Amino acid sequence: MKLQFKLEKKDTKTRGRIGTIIYNGREYKTPMFMPVGTNATVKTLSPEELKEIGSGIILANTYHLWLRPGEDIVAAAGGLHKFMNYDGPILTDSGGFQVFSLARPKDISEEGVLFKNHLNGDKLFLTPEKSIAIQNKLDSDIAMSFDECPPATADYEYLKQSIERTIRWAERGKKVHNNPNQMLFGIVQGGPHYDLRKFSALETVKIGFDGYAVGGVANDHESKEDMYKAFEYSTEFLPDEKLRYAMGIGEPIDLIEGVIRGIDLFDCVSPTRLARHGHAHTWHGKINVKNNKYKDMFKPIEEECNCYACKHYTLAYIRHLIVANETFGARLLSIHNIYFLHQLMAKIRENLESHTLEEFRDKFYQDYYGEK
Amino acid sequence: MKLQFKLEKKDTKTRGRIGTIIYNGREYKTPMFMPVGTNATVKTLSPEELKEIGSGIILANTYHLWLRPGEDIVAAAGGLHKFMNYDGPILTDSGGFQVFSLARPKDISEEGVLFKNHLNGDKLFLTPEKSIAIQNKLDSDIAMSFDECPPATADYEYLKQSIERTIRWAERGKKVHNNPNQMLFGIVQGGPHYDLRKFSALETVKIGFDGYAVGGVANDHESKEDMYKAFEYSTEFLPDEKLRYAMGIGEPIDLIEGVIRGIDLFDCVSPTRLARHGHAHTWHGKINVKNNKYKDMFKPIEEECNCYACKHYTLAYIRHLIVANETFGARLLSIHNIYFLHQLMAKIRENLESHTLEEFRDKFYQDYYGEK
C-alpha cells in the first residue's frame, strides 16, 4: 500500500484523534477534509491550486468514471494519478451511492443492483466484484467497499437485512480486491440504531479492512442528532489504528461534531457546489456573494484569509464574475471555500492538541450560525 | 500616458513592422495578439496564467462593463487594472460594435445610437462623449473612438456618409477625452474601397490620435480579399510611429496577412471561444478534441508545445473533461489556444527579422490549412 496512517494522539476529553498520513514521501495531518473531484477534476481547479490551498486526499467517483471515460481508459493512462496529474492521495467511492439513487427497490438483489445510467438510460448491473474491479483499475489509493446506502429513516427491519447483505457484499469485494497499492475500506451502516451500528461495525471489522467508513449519513434528511449518533455508535466499535471516514459530510458544524465522535476523514461536494451558486464560507457564516450589498465592497471575502482569492480579489469583483456567469468567479470561490474547510480542520487539530475542541465547537457555532 | 510604443524595424519585403511597447517597466514586442476579457476576465483564466503564456495587452469590452458592473463601480475599485488584478496593459473598445448589432438603422442619428440592452431590454443611448467618458472611468491604457461599424458589404453611398459621421464622432470623442494615463485611438473605416479608406485614414490622422485601428473587418462575412484590402488601404495612409490595430481578427492566416500589410495589434475572442467548444489550434490545423479518436490518445495536444496544458495533460484527459462539461477542460484549451497565437506572433516576428514572412506564410498555410 502506498498510503500509511499513523495515529499520533487521542484527545482526553472527546473521541477526537490526531494522525498522520504518509504518502509519496509527504505527510498530511488528520482529521482532514477531502475535496471531491467527481470526474477526475475538482470542479474549476488545477492540481497545483489544490496543493496550494492545502488539500491532501481528494475523492473521485467510481460511478462517473466507469461510465465516462471508462476504467480501461484511466488504466491505460497509467491510473487516476497520471490521468488527472495529481500526485497526492486519491480515494474512490464504490459507486453505490449513485447507483442506489438510480435503482428501484425491486432492482436490488443479493447479486447486485440493476439501474439505468443517467447519461443515456442504458441498463447496467453493478456488483461488489465489479465495483472493486473498477476501482482496482482506477488505481486510487483508497477503494471503498460496495454497500447499500439505505436512508437513515428506513425501517428497522429493512435496515437489518440491508446491513447483513452489505456485510456479505463487503466479504465478496475483499475476496476479489487485487491491487497491492490500494487500501480497501469497509463501511458501517445501521442508521441511528445503536445495536445495528454495533453489529455492522463488529462484523465489518471481523472481515478486516484497511480503514472504515461511516455510511448512511448525509444521504437523506436525517436529523443532526441521528447523524451524530451514527458517528458515535460506529466509531465506538472501530479499531484505533485504522482511519475512520464519514462519507458525504461537509457542513462545518458536522465536521467538528464528527471529529468529536472519532472521525478522521470527511468529503463533500459542498465547497465547490456552493461556489458555483455564488456562496462563500466565512467565519461568521455563509454569505451569498451575489447580494447587492457586495457590489461596491472593495475588500476581500475575509480580511484575514490567506487564500489566493482573498489575497488578490475583492468581493465586488467576485460578485461581478458570478453575476456575469464567468467561471473564474466559481474558481475563486472554490479556492476560498475549500481553503476555509482546510483551515477549519487545522483549527480543529489545534483544539484537539489543547483539549479544547468542545469549547471551540461552541464558539464556532455561535460565530458561524449566530446562535448558542 | 502609461503606455509607450517604439517602432524598431520595418521589413524590407512587406509592410511588416517590429516594435516595442513599454509599460510599467516591462517590454512587450509587436506584432502582438491580444486576448479578450469581455467582462474584465479572460474567460476561465487567471491574470497569472495570462502572464505565464506570454500575454501583453488584453482587451475588455466597454459595452459589457458599462452595463455590468457599471463604470462607476470599476472606477471606485481604482480602475480596471485593480478591479481585475491585471497589471499588464489593457485596451477597451468603444462599445460601438455591440451597440450597432443591437440597434435598428433608424435608431442611428448624428447624436448617437439608441438600442435595447441585451440583459433586460432597457433602452439606452450611446454617444461618442458617453463612450469616451465610460472608458476614461474604466481607466484602460488604450481607449477606442466611438465609430459606426457598417458591414464591408454595405453600399458605397452609405459607407461614405457613415465614414463622415464617424470622423465627426472621432472629433467629438477626442474633445472630451480626459484621462492623461490613457491613449486614444482613431478608427479607419471604408469597407474594401481604396478611396474611402484613404479618405477615412487621412481625415482621422488629421484629427490626431495616439494610434489607429482598422475597423469594419471581421464583423460580416466579407471575403478574405476584402479584409486584406481593408488592411492594406488603411495602413498606407497611417503614420509609421503610431500603433496600428486590426479589430476582431484572430484566424491564424489573417494575423500573418495583417502583419504583411502593416498591422501591429490584433484581438479576437476566438481562442477562448474555440476552447469552450472543445477545439484546439495545432501547427497542422484546428482539431476537435471531442473526436472519438482522441479518447485513448495519451499524449499532449502537441508534443513540442510548452504550454501548461501540453506539459501536464493528455488529449485523452482533456477530451474527457470537455465531454464531461468540466470547465477545467475549457481552461486547459484556452491556455493552449492563446499560447499558440502568441507563439505564432513570435514566429511572425522572427520571420520579419529575417525578411522571410511571405515564405513563412506559404509554409504555414500549407501546414495549417492543408493547401497551397
Secondary-structure topology with pairs:
The structure is a homodimer of 372-residue chains.
Chain A: E1 3-10, E2 17-23, E3 26-30, E4 32-35, H1 47-52, E5 58-60, H2 62-67, H3 71-76, H4 80-84, E6 90-92, H5 96-102, E7 113-116, E8 123-126, H6 128-138, E9 142-144, H7 156-176, E10 183-188, H8 194-207, E11 211-214, H9 224-235, E12 243-246, H10 252-260, E13 265-268, H11 270-276, E14 279-282, E15 285-288, H12 308-312, H13 315-323, H14 327-353, H15 357-369
Parallel strand pairs in A: 4-13, 5-6, 6-9, 9-10, 10-11, 11-12, 12-13
Antiparallel strand pairs in A: 1-2, 2-3, 7-8, 14-15
Helix pairs in contact in A: 6-7, 7-8, 8-9, 10-14, 10-15, 11-14, 13-14
Task: Outline the structure in words.
The structure is a homodimer of 372-residue chains. With 372 residues, chain A is of the alpha/beta class. Chain A has two domains: 3-268, TIM Barrel (Alpha-Beta Barrel); 277-372, no CATH class. Helices cover 42% and strands 18% of the residues of chain A. In chain A, the strands form four sheets. Chain A has an eight-stranded parallel β-sheet. In chain A, helix 9 (224-235) links the parallel strand 11 (211-214) and strand 12. In chain A, helix 6 (128-138) packs across helix 7. The first copy, chain A, is globular. The A-B interface holds A 39-41, 43-46, 64, 68-69, 73, 76-78, 83-85, 295-296, 298, 312-314, 316-317, 319-321, 323-324, 326-331 and B 39-41, 43-46, 64, 68-69, 73, 76-78, 83-85, 295-296, 298, 312-314, 316-317, 319-321, 323-324, 326-331.
Compose a concise summary of this entry.
The first copy, chain A, is α/β, with parallel strands linked by helices and 372 residues long. Chain A has 15 helices and 15 strands.
